Automatic annotation (TrEMBL):
Keywords: Membrane, Transmembrane, Transmembrane helix. Residues 36-70, 86-137 are annotated as: Disordered. Residues 36-46, 54-63, 97-106, 113-137 have a biased composition (Basic and acidic residues). This is Uncharacterized protein. The chain crosses the membrane at residues 6-26.
């Protein structure tokens, strides 16, 4: 073999090795660039997820606050209902006592007609009649 052929074979092998090295270098650069872009994209997605998690916690806190306010409203409404029932019961008691006092006064008053007095004594439920002043002086 001639030295020039061997020299060309060596040069060819070196060129092939250099070409493979250049291709590998640019391929590696591209992979690293792609990986860096993917990392940035992942970081952006994580940031959005963090914001979403914060919004979810905020909404959950607001929902719990609203539920607590609603519960307080129900408790207050129950308390007011009990108070209203108590006051109605007291009013009915006072009304019954007042009506009994009117009946008692009518039973004692000589100016109340006898029919009404008899009705009151029998426990009738005629409306109490207020005594009218005597028109004669």
């Amino acid at each position: 073999m001639d030295t020039s052929i061997v020299l060309w074979i060596v040069v060819g092998v070196i060129v092939v090795i250099v070409v493979i090295g250049v291709v590998y270098y640019f391929s590696k650069q591209r992979r690293e660039a792609t990986a860096a872009a993917d990392r940035r994209k992942a970081e952006d997605i994580r940031a959005q997820a963090q914001e979403g998690a914060e919004d979810a916690r905020k909404n959950d806190a607001e929902a719990q606050r609203a539920a607590a306010e609603a519960e307080l409203g129900r408790i207050e409404a129950d308390r007011l209902q009990r108070e209203a029932e108590l006051r109605q019961s007291e009013a009915a008691t006072f009304q019954a006592k007042s009506e009994e006092q009117f009946r008692e006064a009518d039973a004692v008053d000589p100016d109340v007609n006898d029919v009404r007095r008899d009705d009151v004594r029998r426990g009738g439920d005629a409306a109490p009649e207020r005594p009218r002043p005597d028109p004669t002086p």
